[in-house]
User: What shape does this take?
Amino acid sequence: QVQLVESGGGLVQSGGSLRLSCAASGIIGSFYTMGWYRQFPGKQREPVATITGGGLTNYADSVKGRFTISRDNAKNTVYLQMNMLKPEDTAVYYCNIQLRYNYWGPGTQVTVSS
Assistant: This one.
């Protein structure tokens, strides 16, 4: 059973930092892409950052230079270090793993106050 659980969300002031974690279970091996997506109120879920099994990363333009995605294959865990947070980063953040199907965690709320 593939399961993803996010943690690390919360309330932070503008300019602050948060580190999100996503632990995956039911996964064998590490040759898969994982990523972070976010959903703004009333909007579609959109990609924030992805990382392949080999460590290649990709970022949305809006977070480049501020967010860093990383992974620990031994722990089947992906992280998102978020620095210089802005109020417009406020969203529910979801962890994703790309296998034959896309799997999603339940999400974690990130709220950035001005």
Remarks:
- The mean pLDDT is 95.
- The first strand starts at residue 3 and ends at 7.
- Residues 42 and 55 are 32 Å apart (CA to CA).
- DSSP finds no helices and eleven strands in the chain.
